[in-house]
Amino acid sequence: HVFGIFLALGVGVLLGIGAFTFIYAEGHSYLQNDPEVCVNCHIMQPQFDSWINSSHHHVADCNGCHTPDSLIPKYIAKADNGFRHAWAFTFDNFYEPIQIIPRNQRILQQRCIDCHGDFVHPILDKDNGPRCVTCHADVGHALKRSAQ
Questions:
Q1: Is the Cβ–Cβ distance between 113 and 124 less than 8 Å?
Q2: pLDDT (tens digit, 9 = 90+) per residue, 17-35?
Q3: Of 141, 73, 148, which is closest to residue 107 (Cα–Cα)?
């Protein structure tokens, strides 16, 4: 009986902290498709600014390239990234400039193929490379090559 009370209190505290964090961090904004949400973290400002000047600015946004197209996989990727980013920023354990992880590189590669697959399929083996961004690094983010 006492164990059940402590378990309920523990779960309640965790849910309360989670709800507070979600509200304080404006978690609802990350469920949307607004590219400006990505700059809630200062570390993303250079990527956002370079996207504004990129060739894909008018045809693709952050989610269009960095999350899967299907609803459930999209929100799984968003939750995964959100948790990892929150953890990294909370514990000051991240690289600047921010770096894409292998799982997200695969998503990005698939999104390139989703849009350009008919054109590139003869030269592309999606599992063994080359990765599209190897040659087209500044398509989504108009970064200066000398700065990379």
A1: yes
A2: 989 988 887 888 888 888 8
A3: 73
